[in-house]
Amino acid sequence: MVKRVVVKDHESMGQTIVVLEKKFDFESHTAFRNAYQGFPDATQMIVVDLSKVENLDSSAVGMLLMMHAYVKSRFGNRCSGIRLITGTSYVKDVLNNLRVGNLFLID
After folding, report:
1. What separation, in Å, do the N-terminal and C-terminal C-alpha atoms of the chain show?
2. Strand, coil or helix: what is 22?
3. Angle between the 29-37 and 58-75 helix axes, to the nearest 10 degrees?
4. For residues 95 and 104, what is the distance between their CA atoms, to the nearest angstrom?
5. pLDDT tens for residues 43-90?
6. DSSP-based three-state secondary structure for 1
7. 70 vs 12, higher pLDDT
């Protein structure tokens, strides 16, 4: 089985990076939830790297919203935000069309 969600912790920068590959859909929900619930206490910024994602569905957007609520509840003002790195215009367009830019920094 190919690992679809990878977490990289950069403690020196207070940054935690979640890397998703190819498909971000309902099948990713357990691994994605485990990833964000396992963020280190020292997390100051979260980066979700979607640059390798070719397809995402509505459940992926729901998972991002659940992560946002969890991070806000757990870290409060200690976490400066969640940055989404998009690789394809498709992913960026989906996120922009859903108007989630007020919750996430979208690159």
Report:
1. 29
2. strand
3. 10
4. 10
5. 889 999 999 998 888 899 999 999 999 999 999 888 888 999 998 888
6. coil
7. 70
The token pair that represents 73 in the structure block? 């509840």
CA-to-CA distance for 51 and 70, rounded, in angstroms? 23
Number of structural domains in the chain? 1
Question: What local confidence, expressed as pLDDT, does residue 2 receive?
Answer: 43
Tokens 């998009």 correspond to: 86
Pairwise CA distance, residues 68 & 61, whole Å: 11
Instruction: Compute how many other C-beta atoms are within 10 angstroms of the C-beta atom of residue 69.
Output: 11
Contacts of 91 (CB under 8 A, 6+ apart): 50, 53, 56
Residue entry with tokens 């998703």: 20
Per the listing, tokens 């215009």 go with 89
User: What gap in Å lies between CA 105 and CA 81, rounded to an integer?
Assistant: 7
User: What is the extent of the structural domain holding 20?
Assistant: 5-106
Q: What is the CATH number of the domain that holds 82?
A: 3.30.750.24
